[in-house]
Predict the structure.
Amino acid sequence: MSIPALRIAGLHKAFGKPVITGLDLTVGAGQLYALLGPNGAGKTTTLRMAVGLTEPDQGSIEIFGVDARAQPQDAKAITAWLPDEPMLYDKLTPAEYLGFVAGLWRIPPGQAAPEAERLLRWLELWEVRDTRCEGFSRGMQQKVALAGALIHDPRLLILDEPLTGLDAAMARSVKDALRAAVDQGKTVIVTTHILEVAERLADRIGIIAGGRLLAEGTLEELRTLAGSEDMSLEDTFIRLTSRP
Amino acid sequence: MIGWAMRRLPPGSLGWLTLHELRGNLRNAGRSRVGQVVGALFLLGYTGLGIGLGLLLQGVRWQADPLAWLVVLVATILLFTFMTTQSLLASQRTLFEAGDLDLLFSAPLDPRTVVSAKLLGIAGGVMLTFSIFLLPILGPVAVLGHPELLGALALLVALALVAACLGLGATLLLARTLGPRAARTLGQILAALTGASVFLATQILNQQGERRESGTVLLFEALHTRGFGSGPLSSLPGRAAFGEPLAIVLLLGGGCLLFAATGWAMRNAFLRSYRAGGMRPAGNRAAKGGIARHFHRGLFAAIFAKELRLLLRDPALLFQLLLRIVYLAPIVLIAFRDGRSLPLAPTLAFTSVVIAGQLVSSLAWLAASAEDAPDLLKVAPVDKDDLDFAKLMAAMALAAPLGMLLPLAIAMETIPGALITLLFTAGAGGAVGYLEVAHAQPAPRSTFQRRQKGGGIIRSLVEFVIALLLGLAAGVLVYFV
């Protein structure tokens, strides 16, 4: 059996009141995994703990078998994080931004520069590579951040609400980019409020509420769990999350 | 209290919108709970001082004369300079940073009312700031037997109105002629220059001749000998401040009229600019060539390139940074003025170390505290100590070109002295930079000027003392070499 891309066990976190309460979650390698849940369910907190931005109170996190709490740098080296607010510098251009990110991940310039050019062309940013990000639309900023996330060739890509605020065309190109990343063998974990995205894109879906995993599986498996084979994901989601 | 007043006014009215602006101004001051308590205690003590002064002056009768009017004139010039600076910055915030214009203009309100409220908000904000300094003293003295001093409040209002017109007018003019982006930068530089102009003028005056009087005293004397303060126009602020009804009516009425007229004119200019394409700065640059030049080997190179670009692309910030060094000018000027009594090389050594401390501290704050994407650095596979070290080195490298200047100048006189100075300059930069990086607290770059708020003030003091001690040590060593 292959090593899971992400394995979370017994995760606890409280900010005054408990937010994550004994969460267990395993995401297999090479999947596009959608993490769904109502507002305040703990999705973002879980992912922030996975990438080392928030310290868990208890529990273990492994990324491709690397203990992310004991060896954070080894885990970070193979992970990319893309939050809903892109982590950009307004006054840097996309090319400069990628140069900086490559420096942080210590990618040799000879390897990083061609990869950056490929990403900029692929994400249709090549023509604006020397324009400062401050004038970009949200969608373009999100694409620059996505290029930054991909420049170090991560094995695991974690995205928090990557489609928020994007227009249809931009959302489509980001979705295509994510699917392409999975096709290249990467693992993608994404949180989203847009259930259609999870329905169409995800290989597996996890539903989180009240700080723990309520249900997990393929769309069909979730429908079976919810008790009806022909329900939409929206109905399935509402039925599962409204159970006492 | 503002909320209470707003509830009593018709929503959407000019008064209601103006109070909303003032509330925003007050909240932008952004004090923590502890800061509010300290501020309230300070205000209480300050008012107590005013009451004490009021009781002391209760029986005293005075006759305002040309000398007193001149004092008020000088104070008015200083006050007006600071008010114009504040109003320039407030106009910048209103036009380029507030981000609420779309909301206000999309509401079913007369756009002219919105712009008038913005203008009144700028004037009100300026007034509030300076009232905090004047009212606790003036109020009790006026109530306890000198009601004529309430004229000073009228003077304050008139000055604030004119300063608001000037600030917004200059900002709009710059936006119209240079475009929003350049207007923003130039406006910030202009504000910094206006603020520093009084300081620089007094410092330059300080260096005149052999006399020991301060620049302010010399300015006062120069104005006095030229008859300022006694003429009909130059005595007007003084007469108003001491309660002469005609002077109050002239100044306050003139201020209100000017405010109304320029407000009306600017309101239209503002609306035209906004409707023509908004006031948000934007820039575009054609792409050219490859991108390999942006990729560097190693963490330090990546951090240094980023920090250098961010600094060079923010001229206003760069200017504020250089201005901090200008504020240290008196130390250098002392070296030249008292060249006969103070040896040049040790004084320059001392100056070099103190300036390096100030410069590296500012740059390290920008690199560490004012990091735009802290989460990006946290998710990168980089040890925090390595990152901090790279940031400290980047700050020192950015300061190096300026830090080398004075040691080079000393080298003309003494090579060992220059080496000692270089060593202590680097040492001071390293020490204060380390403190700044090690105690970094996330803050936006735009708060550079206010970075010493809260806990930062103690750190800044410690850093200054360290630089001062190292500077003294360098000076003494260079003296004996």
